[in-house]
Amino acid sequence: MIGLDTVVEKSDDGALCARRLKFLADALAAAPDKPTVIFMHHPPFDCGTRHVDHFRAFEGRDEFAAILERNRQVLALWCGHNHRAIETVCGGVPTSILAGVAHQVTFRLDGDQDGEIVFEPPLFKLHRYKDGALVSHTVYVEDYPGPNPFTFEPDYPGQP
């Protein structure tokens, strides 16, 4: 696991400066056969929402993607900051932005609106790496009714 700092001092923006990119390239070069996951706060790509895309990691994102493409041991890239669950591929690597555990940001792709906070259910992801496979589970933080047993009622429409 590699934690990569993207913070720009006294700003909400993120960046992947030359020093950070060198750190990443050196860390990956030191273990080319070791399955690796990268964690970073700011995503290095556009998500399609104006109110969060201006906070992404602008600086260094093309070089970052090139480093990922050269290092096939990277299994996943996990980001935060946007307070929305988003999935994509960056540099050939499956990439997730996790929703917030406190609140979400409204979902808007229209480009004309600023986001607002919305209290959709908070969630987190639990990851398991075993026998060469990385499996991720999305788990809601709050409690909901249940669990209820799986049963087939003979009088329920559509059941055998």
Features:
17% helix, 9 strands, globular, Transcription Regulator spoIIAA, two-stranded antiparallel sheet, five-stranded mixed sheet, alpha/beta, 3 helices
Structural commentary:
This protein has one domain (2-140): GpdQ, beta-strand dimerisation domain (Transcription Regulator spoIIAA), CATH 3.30.750. Strands 1-2-3-5-4 form a 5-stranded mixed sheet. The protein has a two-stranded antiparallel ribbon with strand order 6-7. The longest helix is centred in the first third of the chain and has 13 residues, at 18-30. The protein has 3 helices and 9 strands. The N and C termini lie far apart (48 Å). The chain has helices spanning 18-30, 50-53, 61-70, and strands spanning 2-4, 36-40, 74-79, 86-90, 93-97, 104-105, 117-118, 123-130, 133-140. The model has no long low-confidence stretch (mean pLDDT 85). A hairpin with a 2-residue loop joins β8 (123-130) and β9 (133-140). It has 160 residues and is of the alpha/beta class.
Helix content: 10-25%
For the biggest β-sheet, the strand order reads: 1-2-3-5-4
User: What is the C-alpha radius of gyration, as a whole number of Å?
Assistant: 19 Å
CATH superfamily: GpdQ, beta-strand dimerisation domain
Beta-strand content: 25-35%
Mean pLDDT: 85
Which residues sit in consecutive blocks of at least 5 with pLDDT less than 50? none
Tally of helical runs: 3
CATH topology: Transcription Regulator spoIIAA
Number of domain units: 1
Alpha carbon gap, first and last residue: 48 Å
What is the top-level CATH class? Alpha Beta
* Structure classification: alpha/beta
Any idea what the CATH architecture is?
A: 2-Layer Sandwich
The strand count comes to: 9
Based on Cα principal axes, name the global outline.
globular
Largest sheet: 5 strands, mixed
